[in-house]
């Protein structure tokens, strides 16, 4: 039965950068939207006027959502980002709407659970182990191979991800990550971290979706800047990939195998992999769209990634074709931390041939925080052209023309009496 005046439930953090694109996409599709969030005091009108739930109490939040559905049904339920996909899956399951199994949604967003599930299923994942930060670290790393990579089990955007080459570097990385994850999640998430083998190879991002268990590819992005550590700041995504066809086929096979192992069925899929001389190693399989504003690189006449995700949530057909031509996006890195005074060279960057947009998202007076502590890019550069190589050159040229002028951040120290 098709609902009259159908509405979509968006489960979102109040400050999610994905919220605005999803609201706009739902409007284009003729859907009303109810936002479920913790935003009673939010300046975002849709959040303030939405369904106020405690995202830290998923049981109570689910009851609020089901009460709202009894008053007026939803055509679909969608979690905007990693932290809300599990609650959205529970709600959609209860309401008999398209969804991934809640267990699969939870395991896909927790790196430790995902690694364990994929390893049991025989998927290609790096050798790994959990580290308990409340116990002495050195006894837990006996037999560990160097180099290795330490990462929080629940954060994204490379926040807190550090390479260690020896015991001293490992202990220092543990202490640094301890400060980053403090207060950032559940108790288990803030006292444990994942350590895994460092895969010496190229990294790619795969973007696609599942519809009733069938996997579809939208784009395979190369990451032409080497990600070797000690931190792993992503910069350029460019498509189509220049990898050999057989390697691209192996990547798709590994993503499909991982989706089956996790039990995923419906919705967007964003995967990260490392390719070396042995295999295509799964680093992440997330039940969400590509992060940040990077989804705009896939926008085309008649296609929008958020519209596709919504159509999957409400089980409505939507045109989904791979992007034509070469295109790329650069997540502008934070080179110097501090308080932003101004950004110079924006017009010069926009004049670079093939560059379509230069979006600066930070404002004067805001703090810029480099990785591994930072979790926000100051802006994005988009380009299109005839080949991935010329798109990559255009992105690099435009970025080189930008200068983020910052002032040191002066922190007041409390003086005891």
Describe this structure in words.
There is one protein chain. This protein is of the alpha+beta class and 417 residues long. The protein folds into four domains: 7-97, Rossmann fold; 127-197, Dna Ligase, domain 1 (2-Layer Sandwich); 200-319, ATP-grasp fold, B domain (D-amino Acid Aminotransferase, Chain A, domain 1), CATH 3.30.470.20; 325-409, D-amino Acid Aminotransferase, Chain A, domain 1. 29% of the residues lie in helices and 26% in strands. The chain has twelve helices and 19 strands. Helix 1 (19-28) links the parallel strand 1 (7-11) and strand 2. Helix 3 (58-71) crosses helix 4, helix 4 packs antiparallel against helix 5 and helix 5 crosses helix 6. The model has no long low-confidence stretch (mean pLDDT 94).
């Amino acid at each position: 039965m098709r609902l009259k005046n159908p509405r979509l439930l968006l489960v979102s953090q109040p400050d999610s950068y994905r919220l605005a694109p999803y609201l706009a996409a739902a409007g284009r599709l003729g859907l009303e939207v109810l936002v479920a969030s913790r935003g009673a005091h939010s300046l975002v009108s849709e959040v303030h006027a939405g369904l106020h739930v405690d995202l830290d109490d998923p049981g109570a939040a689910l009851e609020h959502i089901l009460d709202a559905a009894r008053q007026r049904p939803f055509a679909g339920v969608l979690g905007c980002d990693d932290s809300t996909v599990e609650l959205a899956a529970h709600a959609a399951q209860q309401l008999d709407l398209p969804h991934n199994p809640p267990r699969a949604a939870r395991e896909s967003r927790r790196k430790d659970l995902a690694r364990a599930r994929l390893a049991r299923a025989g998927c290609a994942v790096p050798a790994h182990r959990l580290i308990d930060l409340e116990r002495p670290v050195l006894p837990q790393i006996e037999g560990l191979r160097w180099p290795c990579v330490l990462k929080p089990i629940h954060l994204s955007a490379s926040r807190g991800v550090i390479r260690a080459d020896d015991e001293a570097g490992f202990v220092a990385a543990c202490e640094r990550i301890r400060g980053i994850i403090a207060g950032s999640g559940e108790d288990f998430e803030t006292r444990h971290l994942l350590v895994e083998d460092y895969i010496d190879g190229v990294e790619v991002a795969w973007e696609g979706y599942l519809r009733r268990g069938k996997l579809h590819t939208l784009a395979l992005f190369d990451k032409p800047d080497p990600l070797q550590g000690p931190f792993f700041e992503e910069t350029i995504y460019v498509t189509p990939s220049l990898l050999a066809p057989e390697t691209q086929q192996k990547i798709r096979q590994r993503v499909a195998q991982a989706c089956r192992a996790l039990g995923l069925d419906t919705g967007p899929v964003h995967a990260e992999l490392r390719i070396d001389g042995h295999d295509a190693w799964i680093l992440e399989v997330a039940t969400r769209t590509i992060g940040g504003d990077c989804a705009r690189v896939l926008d085309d006449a008649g296609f929008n990634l958020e519209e596709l995700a919504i159509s999957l949530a409400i089980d409505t057909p939507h045109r989904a074709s791979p992007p034509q031509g070469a295109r790329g996006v650069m997540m502008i890195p934070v080179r110097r931390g501090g308080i932003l005074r101004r950004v110079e060279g924006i017009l010069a960057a926009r004049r670079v041939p093939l560059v379509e947009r230069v979006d600066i998202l930070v404002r004067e007076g805001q703090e810029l925080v480099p990785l591994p502590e930072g979790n926000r890019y100051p802006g994005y550069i988009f380009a299109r052209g005839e080949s991935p190589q010329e798109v990559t050159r255009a992105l690099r040229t435009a970025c080189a023309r930008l200068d983020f002028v910052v002032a040191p951040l002066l922190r007041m120290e409390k003086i005891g009496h």
